[in-house]
């Protein structure tokens, strides 16, 4: 397993650097019974309400992007292969991402891009309100899309809607004009999506083929790291607590390597990390859309050990 003892670095702010605004949307909750994946808080309380976060990213020039779409409204509309797990996890979603955006004054039709960290049901939401948006996924996602629902009635992954624009991230020259950055911080490779250092997609494999994370530059030399399902609970990225559990990861050895990279990233004073299901962020009062995370991130950085 990779271990990181040396310094890591990030691309510097450039003259005239642009920053993005990041907003968290609480797109439904799950009640996972999995102690091993979700941590000791389940042992203590008997259950855990885990949010499914989606994130809105606004760029002055490139407009609006969503990172993950969270859950589907009322847990309905998934391929039947998910039925058992949707019931087991007591999916609770009275307002989906499109509802939350509209409540906050943002029209779903104004979203230009949607990034899926990965294809699990609690991240893909409902694409229907966003027919104009380009979908961006890790290239290895294509492996899963060979067996889709409803062509295959037992398929877990729904076919893309007809006419859906899909872009696969390869972390190579094939992504041009987006630029490959290798490495980025403790991660092996990343894509500078807008080619201006404001928003990066990072290869974060292990959880599911194609899993990716994002790093948003929100103010000078300051970043919010959207970690998706690199792990499911804060105690795994807090140094020295425990190894990430085998449950729910496609390739546990690779997932654990990614976790070491995540832990190293979290040691940086200028990076604030948010997991897709980080219940403590809600409990601690992380602001939700329409309030931005940018100011909150500065406060979180100031609270970091050694800051
Ligand atoms: Zn998830």
Would you mind describing this structure in some detail?
With 307 residues, this protein is an alpha/beta fold. It has helices at residues 35-38, 40-45, 83-88, 97-103, 121-124, 141-144, 234-237, 252-266, 279-283, 294-303, and strands spanning 21-30, 50-59, 63-67, 111-115, 134-138, 148-149, 157-158, 166-169, 179-181, 190-192, 199-203, 212-219, 222-226, 271-274. The strands form three sheets. Strands 1-2-3-4-5-8 form a six-stranded mixed sheet, with helices on one face. A six-stranded mixed sheet has the order 9-10-11-12-13-14, with helices on one face. Strands 6-7 form a two-stranded parallel ribbon. A hairpin with a 3-residue loop joins strand 2 and strand 3. The two termini are 28 Å apart. It binds zinc ion (ZN). The site of zinc ion has 6 residues, from helix 5.
Brief summary:
The protein is of the alpha/beta class and 307 residues long. The chain is built from 10 helices and 14 strands. The radius of gyration is 18 Å and the shape is globular.
């Amino acid at each position: 397993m990779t271990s990181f003892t040396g310094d890591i670095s990030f691309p510097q702010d450039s003259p005239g650097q642009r920053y993005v605004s990041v907003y968290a949307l609480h797109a439904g909750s799950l009640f996972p019974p999995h102690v091993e994946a979700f941590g000791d808080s389940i042992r203590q309380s008997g259950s855990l309400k885990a949010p499914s976060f989606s994130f809105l990213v606004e760029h002055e020039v490139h407009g609006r992007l969503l990172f993950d779409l969270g859950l589907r409204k009322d847990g309905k509309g998934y391929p039947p292969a998910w039925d058992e797990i949707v019931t087991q996890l007591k999916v609770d979603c009275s307002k989906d991402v499109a509802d939350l955006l509209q409540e906050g004054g943002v029209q779903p039709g104004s979203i230009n891009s949607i990034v899926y960290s990965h294809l699990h049901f609690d991240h893909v939401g409902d694409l229907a309100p966003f027919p104009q948006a380009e979908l961006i996924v890790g290239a290895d996602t294509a492996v899963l899309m060979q067996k889709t629902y409803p062509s295959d009635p037992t398929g877990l992954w729904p076919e893309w809607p007809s006419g859906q624009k899909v872009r696969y991230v390869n972390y190579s020259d094939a992504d041009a004009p987006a630029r490959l950055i290798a490495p980025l911080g403790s991660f092996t490779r990343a894509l500078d999506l807008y080619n201006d250092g404001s928003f990066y997609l990072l290869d974060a494999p292990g959880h599911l083929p194609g899993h990716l994370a994002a790093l948003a530059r929100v103010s000078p030399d300051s970043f919010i790291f959207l970690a998706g399902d690199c792990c499911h609970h804060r105690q795994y990225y807090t140094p020295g607590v425990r190894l990430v559990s085998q449950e729910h990861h496609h390739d546990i050895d690779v997932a654990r390597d990614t976790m070491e990279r995540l832990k190293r990233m979290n040691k940086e004073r200028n990076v604030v990390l948010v997991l897709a299901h980080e219940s403590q962020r809600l409990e601690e009062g992380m602001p939700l859309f329409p309030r931005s995370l940018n100011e909150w991130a500065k406060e979180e950085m100031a609270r970091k050990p050694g800051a």
